[in-house]
Amino acid sequence: PLLAMGMGGGFVIAASYEAKAKGVRTGTPLKEAMRLCPDAVQMPSDFRETAVASEQIEAVLQNVCPFIEQMSIDEWYMDLASLVGGIPKDAQAWAKNLQQEVLRQTSLSVSIGVGPSKLLAKIAGEYRKPTGVTAIGMDDLEWFLKDRPAPAIPGIGSKREVHTKAH
Fold first, then answer.
1. What's the rounded mean pLDDT across residues 128-154?
2. Which residue in 48, 51, 121, 128 is deepest, having the highest Cβ count within 10 Å?
3. DSSP-assigned letter for residue 1
4. Burial of 78 (0-12, 13-18, 19+ CB in 10 A)
């Protein structure tokens, strides 16, 4: 398990999937993170390297789609309707090809979610992390959302799950 530490080293700003499986999240104080995951390796964050990686991924996306919107250092939305030929008939295969192209050009693995809205695309992108591809269309919404827990919706979080289950 790996913990990327924020400035000053007091808080976790990123955690590997192994650390996340033990309950470590972004913003977890170091003392709490080490209690949850005593075998974790701590490392200082390299913000310059992170920015370079972000720019590399964005360059690949810009070559593929004329309209992209960056949401964070490691998250973008693409308007597939702006692609030449419009939205791909097989969005799953299209996204898998894009994932392979990002890996080929940057040596970085990514997860990709395709959906009829930004919210659904984000949920789809989280669905098969790490390195998963999930494409959902309007006809897929019922089966896809049926078993998703409330915290799968961005902004809900695990503390609200107790409240949402009660309702």
1. 88
2. 121
3. -
4. buried
